[in-house]
Amino acid sequence: xxxxxxxxxxxxxxxxxxxxxxxxxxxxxxxxxxxxxxxxxxxxxxxxxxxxxxxxxxxxxxxxxxxxxxxxxxxxxxxxxxxxxxxxxxxxxxxxxxxxxxxxxxxxxxxxxxxxxxxxxxxxxxxxxxxxxxxxxxxxxxxxxxxxxxxxxxxxxxxxxxxxxxxxxxxxxxxxxxxxxxxxxxxxxxxxxxxxxxxxxxxxxxxxxxxxxxxxxxxxxxxxxxxxxxxxxxxxxxxxxxxxxxxxxxxxxxxxxxxxxxxxxxxxxxxxxxxxxxxxxxxxxxxxxxxxxxxxxxxxxxxxxxxxxxxxxxxxxxxxxxxxxxxxxxxxxxxxxxxxxxxxxxxxxxxxxxxxxxxxxxxxxxxxxxxxxxxxxxxxxxxxxxxxxxxxxxxxxxxxxxxxxxxxxxxxxxxxxxxxxx
Length: 422
Known about the structure:
membrane, 21 helices, seven-stranded parallel β-sheet, 2 domains, single chain, Rossmann fold, 422 residues, Kdotransferase, six-stranded parallel β-sheet, alpha/beta, globular
């Protein structure tokens, strides 16, 4: 162990003593589940099933959901193995409770202290640990290596900023990265940075290109269509706080002409504040979570629930992807809309999804704007040219179906790391 990693471990050992109070404070802000704080300290909330167990970890909603196709494949190919998935956010936990296959277990990830990591690994004893994207926790990775537990990093994404930060401790990062039994980068730049840091990479694979269309029932679809009637529906999806009011204000002329704007906030906990912001513009708001009725005079429908994005995309005439109009977020997955045959309008920052957006842009399935002012113009053009939207929707659906081989590539990498059946 390098001097830096050893020092980090000692510091985190001290931090553990303050962790309960820190987690409790986060819980008061809605950032932790107050009923499950002990899981963050490594103390399991559920018993471990007998037999081999594969552990998947994705820090937030996007990463954890991208692992679901791999988990489904693992369940089909190796029904003898149990599945544990950990995340670090309450939103991801709520979504996974609806989407995990039968028998899979969700827990919150342990904080990276020696005490929490030891308690976690002592209880769950995984035969393989699979990390998604770029979570590098030194204590946890060192603990896995010390126990000779193979671990993989899938869909690895390393930005230039992250790379420069890691270069501060090159020997420590090399030790952690070389401990992985398998590293699969999601794009060329990430692969190059990982290699420069000493990692040995396998085939590229971006898990976020995988996945089935988001679920939606015909009953729910028919119900909402009868409620909305013939009104044009504009959906602003996965918006971050601040984007909601910016988008509402710039689209206000169309809303006042009769269009219905559906806002689907990334963090529904902010719904009360969002409603006040929209109402301050003089627009009438109905909230999904409050079961507010929607009438002809409703101008903005605040869809502050989880697990219904498939419904809103299916109803949309125009889709705007959030997380792209504020700095430092990097956009969200446009393939979720594309799988339901919907093109998207996006803001300038799509750095988290550069390769996917590039493919969609080349196919004419994305309309990128440089800011909210340009957003108003582009939405106006799309309102007036439904034929353009129809063609873009078709292109989006075609692009979403191109990645069928990715899951096979990932499985070929993971399968040799699994224990033999029986």
